[in-house]
Each structure stands twice: as structure tokens, then as C-alpha cells.
Automatic annotation (TrEMBL):
The active site is at E47. InterPro entries: Phenazine_PhzF-like. PANTHER family: ANTISENSE-ENHANCING SEQUENCE 1, PHENAZINE BIOSYNTHESIS PROTEIN. GO terms for cellular component: cytoplasm. This is PhzF family phenazine biosynthesis protein. SUPFAM superfamilies: Diaminopimelate epimerase-like. Belongs to the PhzF family. GO terms for molecular function: isomerase activity. It comes from the Bacteria. Pfam families: PhzC-PhzF (PF02567).
Length: 293
């Protein structure tokens, strides 16, 4: 089997070794699902992406996304980072890479727009492939157990804890700032809840958020997917933004802070409306090399 080129990039940050790291295999032709899962487990990042030629030549690429334990139908930081990497690459499968791309993914078509400053590629913005879908409401007692909190820490004034998705599903709950800082991933509680509290697909991910005056701070736990705590979760940020906009249409722009509890501070920009939600931010290249298989 030939060698496979890869690039790693830190996403949702302007500082190397912050944000959420991502491995992008820029030409994955010849790799099957088992090999991609093994490679994702080897990198052991929250996600790794694998780029194939598009099935429809009108699109830019077919992209598959893997955590260390499962394939994702859609994810935010992998799309932002993959767009950034491909734009810097310049050509893909013999064609120039445009600043507006379309990725084919399991959740649908994902538009990606490259960000530039003074001509330099600095990051990307991604539009979620699906409209907001709200799922099962979950008892605050069960949510609190997942995060090592008291049931009183789960705030329900604005909305109950509930599954929400714009392409990838998360259990979303609001907490106070103090409770967010105290939250700890309870792996045993996740193992007990998996498949029993209403998620429709994939492994359980819990997205907690706390409102501040000028921003929202978030944390995301998905230990059964190999992500005990994620530094930045764009797909969950998009679902949260879409849900908050649905609750209050006057709220359209959100700045989400994530990752400081794992020493990888990240900043996610979300814009939501009735018909679409986008997530975006800057990226920093870190490594490039070859996989020897």
C-alpha cells in the first residue's frame, strides 16, 4: 500500500498548541473503513478526516470523519480545519481548490468558505448540513450524574436538557458558571446511560454551557467516543446556536469559549438564523508528514 500524506492543524485558535487538533489525510484513496478507524485511533485526536474525490464533480471532495472510536456524520472543527488545509494545498485531485467548497458527508452537503486576511488563508466558516432537530428531553438528575454535578446545577428556566442536532446529535444543558467549572466527566454514568436516555444515533456526547455577559462558555464530554473532554466542538456549538436562535430569534450571533479546562483554549464563532447556522474560526498549521501503511 502506498504512503498517505497528512497534515495536522489546530482549529479555533490563532496560537499553535491551543484550539482543537485535527489530522487531515489529504488523499485517502485506497483506505477502507477499518484502516481509517485505526489511523484515527493512532492519531488519538478528537477527530481525523479522510479526503476522497467527490462522487459529484460539482462538489469539492468527499470527506469522512472519525473519532478514535466511531465515524461521525458531521463535525465542526474537522470541516473548518479540512477546508483550511485543502485551501493551503492549492490543488486537489488535479483541480484547483476554490475558496468556496462543498464537502460530501454522511449528514449531507457541507458548504465551507475560506477566510483570508491580506490574501493569507487564516481559517474557514462552515454551514451545518441540516436544520435544527430537537430530540428527547432528559431528566436533569440523569444529566447531572453524567457531569458529576447536583441536579440543582442544571438550569431549566430557558429550556430543559434535550438532544439537539444540525447534523450530529448532542445532549445540551445549561448550567451556571460555577457548575460548569466543577463539572467532571463521569465515565461510569455515561456507560450506564448509553442507549438508554434517548439519543438517536452515535455515542453519547454531553454539551454543557454557561452564559456570561459577552460570551458563552461550553464544555463537551464524550468518553465512549474516545473524547473525555473536547477542546472545541463546532457541531455542538452549531446545534446550541440554532436552538438559542429558535428560542429567541433576536439572538443570532454567539461567541463560544471552550477548552480552557484541558489547557487548549478555543474560540468558536456561531451565526444562526431560521434557515441556516454557521460555525467558523481561525486555524494554525502544526505538522505534515506521511503515513506508512
Amino acid at each position: 500500500m502506498p504512503d498517505f500524506p497528512f497534515t495536522t492543524v489546530d482549529v479555533f485558535t490563532t496560537s499553535r498548541f491551543a484550539g482543537n487538533p485535527l489530522a487531515v489525510i489529504t488523499d485517502a484513496r485506497g483506505l477502507d473503513t477499518a484502516a481509517m478507524q485505526a489511523i484515527a485511533r493512532e492519531f488519538n485526536y478528537a477527530e481525523s478526516t479522510f479526503v476522497f474525490p467527490p462522487t459529484d464533480p460539482a462538489n469539492t471532495a468527499h470527506v469522512r470523519i472519525f473519532t478514535p472510536e466511531e465515524e461521525m456524520p458531521f463535525a465542526g472543527h474537522p470541516n473548518v480545519g479540512t477546508g483550511f488545509v485543502l485551501a493551503r494545498l492549492g490543488t486537489l485531485f488535479g483541480r484547483p481548490v476554490p475558496d468556496r467548497m462543498i464537502f460530501e458527508e454522511a449528514a449531507g452537503l457541507v458548504p465551507v468558505t475560506i477566510r483570508r486576511e491580506a490574501g493569507a488563508i487564516t481559517g474557514a466558516t462552515v454551514r451545518a448540513p441540516r436544520p435544527l432537530a430537537l430530540g428527547t428531553i432528559v431528566d436533569p438528575v440523569r444529566v447531572a450524574a453524567l457531569a458529576g454535578l447536583d441536579p440543582a446545577d442544571i438550569l431549566t428556566t430557558r429550556h430543559p436538557p434535550r438532544f439537539a442536532s444540525v447534523g450530529a446529535e448532542f445532549l445540551i444543558a445549561e448550567v451556571g458558571a460555577d457548575a460548569l467549572a466543577r463539572a467532571r466527566c463521569n465515565v461510569a454514568a455515561f456507560e450506564a446511560a448509553e442507549g438508554n436516555i434517548g439519543q438517536s444515533a452515535g455515542l453519547l456526547g454531553l454539551h454543557l454551557y454557561a452564559r456570561h455577559t459577552d460570551h458563552i462558555e461550553v464544555r463537551m464530554f464524550a468518553p465512549l467516543a474516545g473524547v473525555t473532554e473536547d477542546p472545541a466542538t463546532g457541531s455542538a456549538a452549531a446545534a446550541l446556536g440554532a436552538w438559542l436562535n429558535a428560542l429567541d430569534p433576536a439572538e443570532t450571533r454567539f461567541t463560544l469559549h471552550q477548552g480552557r479546562h484541558v489547557r487548549r483554549p478555543s474560540l468558536i464563532e456561531v451565526e444562526a438564523g431560521p434557515n441556516a447556522v454557521t460555525v467558523g474560526g481561525p486555524c494554525v498549521p502544526v505538522m505534515a508528514g506521511m503515513l506508512h501503511l
